[in-house]
Each structure stands twice: as C-alpha cells, then as structure tokens.
Design goal:
There is one protein chain. With 386 residues, the protein is of the alpha+beta class. The chain contains 13 helices and 16 strands. The protein has a three-stranded antiparallel β-sheet.
Length: 386
C-alpha cells in the first residue's frame, strides 16, 4: 500500500495493540467497482461502502464533507493551496481572512482547517466524487445509510459519548456533536470492527488510514487525532434534519442564508455528473462556469451562481391539468456518467486542471498555463477485501 500516511500508524484497541503490518502490508487494494451510470440508484450495500469511513463524524463536519464532495475540483484546488507553506502556516483570523479571498464554495473553505481530512479527500478522488454524486442523486438514501451504520456501531457497543464528541438519540436517529464548543476531533476507526460483522461481503467498506499518534476514545477501535480549533465563520453553518432527510443551512457570519442546502453547479466547474437527472439539471451551468474560469466568454444570458449554501430554493414545477409539469432544463453538454473526472483525463491531469483554473483566475491576460506540481501518490483510503 502506498503513501506517506502508511509510514507510521498507531492504533490502539481495548484488546491490545493491532500489528502495524496489518495496516501497512498485505491489504490488497481494490477499486470501488464499476460506477453506476444513467439514473440507476446505488443500493444499500453500495451506499454503506461509501459512507462507512465518515458515518461516525460529528454532524457539522459530516455536512461539510458531503457538500464539499459535490465540488471535487475545488477540493483539489484547496489542497494545492494548503500545500503552500505560507498558507499552511496561517491560523485563526489570518486563515479566515485568507479563505474569504478564495472563490471556492463555503463547504470547501470549511475543510481547510482540517488539513488531514482535506488531504484524504484529495488523495482519494474516486471516493470523493462518488459520494458527492450519491449525495446529489440520493440524499435521502445517503442519510439513511449514515443512520443505519450509526445504529450498527451503537448496537456493537462501539459508538458512545467520549471526551471528544457527544452521542445522543432522537427517536430512531443518532446525532453526534463535538463535546467541546471550540474544538473538533476527527474520528478514525476500522469499519470492519466498529460496525460489528460487516453485512455486505461483496462491498467491503472503504476506510481512511489514521494519522500517527491517536488519543484513544472509548469504544472498540476508535481513536481521535489532534483537536482542530473551530474557525469562525467556517463552522456551524449546517444542521441535519434527520427525520425529514434534509440538510439545513442555518446562516451565520459566512453570509449563508437559512434554508435547505442547495447545490451550486458553478462550483462544479465542468466535472461531469453521473446521474442523468442530476446532469440535466446542473451540467449546462457547470460547463458555463468552467468556461468562465478558463477565460472563455460567457454565453449570452448566462448568470454566475451564488455560493452553494446561499442559493435560493429551486422553484417547484407548476401544476397543469394533467398533473405536475416537468421542469424545463437544458440538456447536458457532455456525456454524463463517465469514470471519475473523465472529462479531465487521469488523476494527474485533474491536478493540472486545478492548477490551470487557479492560474486563469489570477492572471490579468491569457497565457500558457504553468507546469503543475505532481499529484501525490499517497492513498489515504482503501476499500478492503477479504
């Protein structure tokens, strides 16, 4: 298994120390299986495979990850920005001020204070794009998957309140919140253990390798890295309504308007949508935004979108004598449902595309794009085979 995260991994369990080689050797890597295309919905097995490594995150952080995953190219750009030592050294108000100057969606900016998590999403772009697409096409089912896995972990005795986060139940739903008001911890765990006996043998759970040095929490095989200070105004802007399968924006100093979360295709910037219905709704505006970033003139009448969390609710279809009318949409301008970032080629070309986009936004006049930095070869997460 490749990657710098594999150099030193310390996981403690209530049963003793797990052999280091179990995490760094002998775990064959498989892909996530063929991408679902067209309007086919992901099954419970497929969704649980995708949500396994993040289902036990604190609710506000979970909302940031899922919404940011719908803008995978901006995730890449944010990670590249953070690799600059000058940016990586920013803390507190200085970091907040620097992030305010970036054009990324609020959800992507909100992950910059969690550098290890942002790096994992960048390293595993296939997982990032797939879970983002699933959240767009099947938000209800994704939320049900998260609650299903939380109930499994609670039933196995491995999801309880810790000094790092508080676990509570509301009817059939389990909520997780940071235990402290000003610090957030990212949990790391082995999905094969924490959820009990994994029920889907054909869909082994995806997992993220933990960083070296963990503060062990209560429960089986769960640990926490260093706490991240909350950075206002990039925290606390989303809240889950689990019973109604909604992610609500609660507003705040980031300028977000209260209401149900709405995807903003202008921050997608041309990355294809796999689901045809989602593509028909968003792809044309996404392509238009990509042209703007790369210096092409906008088509007549094209409007730039607002931040995803500030977009007004979509107007529902009007009623007709024969029933609800289908919304009028522009057809997608590119193929929908290719492999991850197919429109940009392989993984290294995705990173080159992110470099060109950043260069286009900062250059006063068109010129040749600079040579991009090499994409890291580390893979912070792997699906497991038995």
């Amino acid at each position: 298994m490749k990657g710098s995260l594999c150099l030193a991994v310390l996981i403690l369990s209530v049963m003793g120390l797990r052999p280091l080689t179990a995490w760094t050797q002998g775990i064959p890597a498989t892909d996530l299986g063929p991408a679902t295309t067209g309007n086919s919905a992901l099954s419970e097995e497929q969704l649980d495979q995708l949500t396994a490594p993040i289902a036990l995150y604190a609710d506000p952080l979970l909302g940031q990850v899922l919404t940011a995953a719908t803008y995978p190219l901006e995730v890449v750009e944010a990670q590249r920005w953070l690799q600059d030592p000058a940016n990586a050294a920013l803390k507190g108000d200085q970091l907040a001020a620097a992030l305010q100057q970036q054009s990324w969606d609020l959800s992507v900016k909100s992950l910059v204070p969690f550098p290890q998590l942002l790096q994992m999403m960048d390293n595993d772009l296939e997982w990032t794009e797939r879970i983002g697409d699933a959240f767009l096409a099947q938000q209800d089912a994704v939320m049900e998957s998260i609650q299903r896995l939380r109930r499994r972990a609670a039933g196995a005795g491995s999801l309880t309140s810790t000094p790092q986060q508080t676990v509570s139940s509301q009817a059939q739903d389990i909520e997780i919140e940071p235990a402290a008001p000003d610090v957030v911890y990212v949990p790391y765990y082995d999905p094969d253990v924490i959820y009990g006996n994994w029920p889907w043998s054909d869909y082994p759970p995806f997992y993220f390798l933990p960083p070296p040095g963990l503060v062990v929490g209560s429960g089986l095989w769960i640990g926490f890295g260093l706490g991240y200070p909350i950075l206002n105004p990039f925290w606390g802007w989303n809240r889950w309504d689990w019973p109604h399968h909604r992610l609500n924006i609660v507003g705040g100093p980031a300028g977000a308007h209260a209401g149900p979360w709405q995807h903003d295709p202008t921050h997608r910037r041309g990355v294809p949508y796999r689901n045809e219905t989602v593509a028909a709704r968003f792809q044309a505006e996404s392509e238009s935004a990509r042209r703007d970033v790369r210096g092409f003139p906008a088509p007549p009448g094209a409007a730039r979108g607002a931040t995803a969390s500030t977009r007004p609710p979509v107007e529902p279809p009007r009623e007709t004598s024969s029933g609800p009318a289908a919304p009028s949409v522009r057809p997608p301008s590119v193929r929908t449902a290719p492999p991850a970032f197919e429109s940009f080629g392989g993984g290294s070309q995705v990173h080159q595309e992110s470099q060109r986009g950043a260069f286009s936004r900062s250059s006063p006049a068109p010129r040749s794009a600079p040579e991009s930095r090499s994409a890291p070869s580390a893979h912070g997460g792997e699906p497991r085979t038995r």
